[in-house]
Amino acid sequence: MSSDATTSPPGPLEGLTVIEMGTLIAGPFCGQILGDFGATVIKIEDPKAGDPMRQWGRSLPKGHSPWWPVIGRNKQSVTLDLRTSEGQDIARRLIGGADVLVENFRPGAMEKWGLGYERLSADNPALVMARVSGFGQTGPYSSRAGYALIGEAMGGLRYITGEPDRAPARAGISVGDSLAGLHAALGTMMALHARHRSGKGQIVDAAIYESVLSVMENLITEYGLTGYVRERSGSVLPGIAPSNAYPTKDGALVVIGANQDTLFRRLCDAMGRPELAQDPRYAGHAARGEHQAQLDALIGDWTATLDADALLALMEASGVAAGRVYRAPDMLADPQFAAREAIVEVPHPVFGAVKMQNAFPRLSDTPGAVRWPGPALGEHTDEVLSGRLRMSTAEISSLRESGVI
Predict the structure, then answer these.
(1) How large is the average pLDDT for residues 364-374?
(2) pLDDT value at position 105?
(3) What is the pLDDT of residue 10?
């Protein structure tokens, strides 16, 4: 489905101005979310190279990163050298007219440039400043460099991911960065809501390791109460059965979740083995968890006799949750993805068009939208400086000649 900005209704954040600083994923993902839902996001980039995401990726079709159109979408690009006094002054002026500032530099960098919250809020008391970092703005680790893999490791995710007989694995994406960006966006909206009552902005402090820690379910609580340290368990959750990926006759993998008693009975009926639901080894949640490996082997032997399509049709007819393990081509071919426009095609000046995930979650009256892909470096510099700061063409030309923009 093509994305058409002209027919999209105004997003819920229309009228909100966001200045985005920082690079890579964590801070820019926060900006992406806000931009998806209608905020005007002005991304400030270094004039010489811009965000490294412009060059990152396993491949560079036509010399361009396929990553940048997504993380840079719905943003305006302004080049500005924040290491110069002129660049810092321009940044302060832009922030002075903004609602939100998003940054993910190492703590202390913004203060070194004269862009700390105390100074910025003196000029703009309503400013909400979302700060994303590895370890947060305070504490003995705050000045350390922090990336997703560090936050995922220290937040507890890395240790429990992978097979029990191997070293911890990592997910194939930067989960910690994305979680921190989500938390920063959520915190920004909370701070904006509070501003409606007080008229004052505040700092949103999103740490990558804490963002990972927040989704670790009962890991800490269980250890505190029982001393149990959760270990790696491969593709299953210990004690939750059946809930796994099972092989099919045609070489596919289908995940089946039937760990509730009612669902398990339906699965047994579909297997032609209704007696399993009464077997003391499988009759209750705790019993199935205790005999998890044996139960998974039994189900896997059965699923291996059916093609994936036949297995999925049978699970649907039986009311048992199931689905294929998808890759990108499977998503693009799936009618559910198509019906909900989960993937959109966006015009692109170099690629012609690019496919990417849509804006989520869905709002019934003011949905988000992908209005344009990541812009060229500095594409909006003249427009923003002349429009927002009333700079003349001569002033802008002078700044460009001196390397400030």
Answers:
(1) 97
(2) 96
(3) 87
Output phi, psi for 176, to 5 deg: -60, -45
Which residue stretches of 41-137 are H helix?
68-71, 85-96, 109-112, 117-123
- pLDDT score of 7 more than 80: no
C-alpha separations of 347 from 1, 117, 295, 344, 360 in Å? 11, 38, 49, 10, 20
What pLDDT is stored for residue 9 in this prediction? 78
Q: What confidence category does residue 182 fall into, taking pLDDT thresholds of 50, 70 and 90?
A: very high
Q: Which CATH fold would you assign to the domain 243-333?
A: formyl-coa transferase, domain 3 (3.30.1540)
CATH assignment of 5-215+364-401, among 3.30.70.890, 3.40.50.10140, 3.40.50.10540, 3.90.650.10: 3.40.50.10540
Which residue, among 61, 70, 145, 151, has the nearest Cα to 106 in the 3D structure?
145
Nearest alpha carbon to residue 92 among 78, 106, 107, 113 = 113
Domain range list for the chain:
5-215+364-401, 243-333
Q: CA 281, 286, 291 angle in degrees (round to 5)?
A: 45
Residues 141, 142, 147, 149: what is their CA dihedral angle, to the nearest 10 degrees?
Answer: 30
List the catalytic residue out of 36, 81, 99, 177: 177
Q: In one letter, which amino acid is 320?
A: V
Cβ(51)–Cβ(24) below 8 Å:
yes
Catalytic annotation on 205?
Answer: no
Model confidence over 327-363: pLDDT tens digits?
999 999 999 999 999 999 999 999 999 999 999 999 9
